[in-house]
Amino acid sequence: MTQRTVFKIFGSLGPGGTFVTLTEKIIRYVFNAAYDLQNDNEFKASEEAEIAKLRQDFVNELFEMKGQFERQSKSMSQLIKVKAYTVLHKLIERYQKQIIMLEKNKLYKEKTFYQNEENQQRADLASKKLDSVDADVADNLNKMAIHILNPDMNEFKRQNSGTIEERVSQVRAEEFARFWKELKVKNRLFGSNIDDSNDPIIKNHKQELYVKFGEDIADIFESFKYYQIDTTVDSGTTIQ
C-alpha cells in the first residue's frame, strides 16, 4: 500500500513522475499477483446484494414448500410424485435464470474493472468464471434444494441429470482444492492417500469444505480426480 502511494505521489511530479509511472506499469505487469496485495481498489458490484437476496429468497421458498413436497414426493400416485418434482425444478429454474443474469453482469463489470486497473490476472479469473457461471449457479441451487428437501435422488436426477463436469467447473474445483490444501497444511495433514482416510479429523475438515462452499463432498473430491488436481501436501508446501 505504501509503495502504491509513493508511486502516485511521484507520478505527479513532472518528468521524473513520468518515469515512475512507467515503472509502476512494468511492476504491475511483471509482479501482478504480489502488486495486487497492495491495491486498495477492490471490485464491488451492486449485483452482489441482489444475488444474496435471491439466494435467501430461494432458500425461504424451499422451506415453505418442504412439508408439501415431502408429502407429495412420497405419494403412491406417480402423477402426484412427478408433479412435486416438476414444481421443484421449475422453482430452481426460475431462480437460476435470475441469478445467472446478475452473476454475468457482475463478472463482466469485474473483468472490465480489473482490465482498467491493469490487473490482468484478476481480469482473466473473472473471464474464467464467466465461462462456467451457468453450470456453477445451477449446481449450487440444486445442492441447496437437495440439502433442504432431501429428495429421492433417483427421482431428482431423472429430471436433472448431468456429469461431474456439468456439476462442478474446473475453476470451482481449483478453488475447492486450494482451500482443502490450506486446511491440510495448517493442520499438518501430510500424505498422498490422506483424502480417502476415515480419520475423524479428516471428516471434520471435509465438513468445513461443505460449510464454506455448500457443495456435495463427494462431488468435490470427484472433481479433483476428474480434473486431475493434485491435493497432496507436505511440510514444504506453500499455497499460492
TrEMBL record:
Top-rank taxon, per record: Eukaryota
Protein name: Uncharacterized protein
